Amino acid sequence: MTTREGNLLAPTRHPLDWKNPEFYEQGAIDAELERVFDICHGCRRCVSLCQAFPTLFDLVDNSKTMEVDGVAKSDYPKVVEQCYLCDLCYMTKCPYVPPHPWNVDFPHVMLRAKAVGFRKKGSRPRDRFLTSTDRVGKLATIPVVVQMVNAINGNPAVRKVMEKTIGVAAEAHLPPYDAARFRDTVRASIAWPVRNGERTPGKVALFGTCYVNYNEPSLGHDLVRILEHNEVPYRLVEDEVCCGMPKLEIGDLESVAVLKKRNIGPMGALMRVYPRSSVALSTPAFAASTCARADRWADTALSSSAWLMARSAASGRYRLTSMSAFESAASARPSAPFASASLAR
Ligand code: SF4
Ligand code: SF4
Fold first, then answer.
1. Are residues 95 and 332 in contact, defined by beta-carbon separation less than 8 angstroms?
2. Do both 131 and 199 map to the same domain?
């Protein structure tokens, strides 16, 4: 086991002990936040990644001691609420991730703090609404309703009201809904012969995700075109619900567990038939991958980009022309279990 700082190996991720009552003890989470914040304050490598780190460093720099011990514990949530669990700091930046003895897993500490906050205070109605992406997506993509919803979301006056009432910034981009849902419009695969790659299976199961199903089906259709072009047979996972990422972001772990249970059945059935055959589209399939890890399927659920990168590297037949820095970096880690998809046309 290596303990040196920084390497290209996949970091170790310890599962969250979220069913243990100690997990929710305020004193324990405060102590862990202080420990990790102190390491980050001494390092500051992630300052440009998101607003969580500048918020932390401003709190430290403006405190009396200019150290983490000068920051009021009541201000810790200001850092936590800025983390949207993208995992970038953990996957690509931090040299102190496990197995390093400092055991810094910043997103997991944020997630634990979110879960503690959720258990104490619950969630606001607006958060419950906004994180029910599957339910909202199904309603918002009904013909006629979809035109109304998109018109309302695009109206500056309505957006001002939304900002005042539910706190959604008027200038924030709200992706329009698409009545032609991905699951309803994806065409069936041609029965190409299955040709396994060196590092990838020769057939693919697609887990669409809410964003692709309801907001941007073209992402899914682009992937299908790539698969067709390369004569890779594919199929949709028979049934899917939200992967749970929005619920994870508000610390609602019980809801994530329910969603996991719904998804794991159909995905598991396919994985047993086609080992390492699942591809998740769109946003980081964090929760889906968490499910996969929890069920020891870490090597079976791959993002579309991770799958294509692996096949590309092995065969030279695949070329991606549009990948975000995050995808490239995350996919560069062997066995990176999740990354977002931004597919070349
Ligand atoms: S997980 Fe992403 S959003 Fe959260 S602190 Fe790390 S880089 Fe920032
Ligand atoms: S998460 Fe790691 S790399 Fe980022 S600031 Fe903290 S200690 Fe440094």
1. no
2. no
Give the span between the Cα atoms of 98 and 105, in whole angstroms: 7
Q: What's the domain count of the chain?
A: 3
**pLDDT tens digits in sequence order for the chain, 345 residues long:** 455 666 677 788 888 899 999 999 999 999 999 999 999 999 999 999 999 999 999 999 999 999 999 999 999 999 999 999 988 999 889 999 998 999 999 999 999 999 999 999 988 999 999 999 999 999 999 999 999 999 999 999 999 999 999 999 999 999 999 999 999 999 999 998 988 777 777 788 888 889 999 999 998 898 899 889 888 888 888 888 998 889 999 999 999 999 988 888 887 777 665 555 444 443 334 444 444 444 455 455 566 776 677 776 655 544 433 333 333 333 333 333 322 322 222
187, 319: one domain: yes
160 lines ligand 2 (CB under 6 A): no
Cα separation of 338 and 105, whole Å?
16
Determine, yes or no, domain membership for 316. yes
Q: Is 274 found in the same domain as 199?
A: yes
The widest CA-to-CA distance across the chain, in whole angstroms, is 68
Burial of 340 (0-12, 13-18, 19+ CB in 10 A): buried
Question: 47: CA distance to ligand 2 center in Å?
Answer: 9
196: containing domain: 182-332
**Closest residue (by CA) to atom 2 of ligand 2?**
94
Distance CA 67, CA 31 (A): 15
Query: 14 in a domain, yes or no?
Result: no
Assess whether 153 and 197 both reside in one domain: no
CA of 89 to the centre of ligand 1 (A): 6
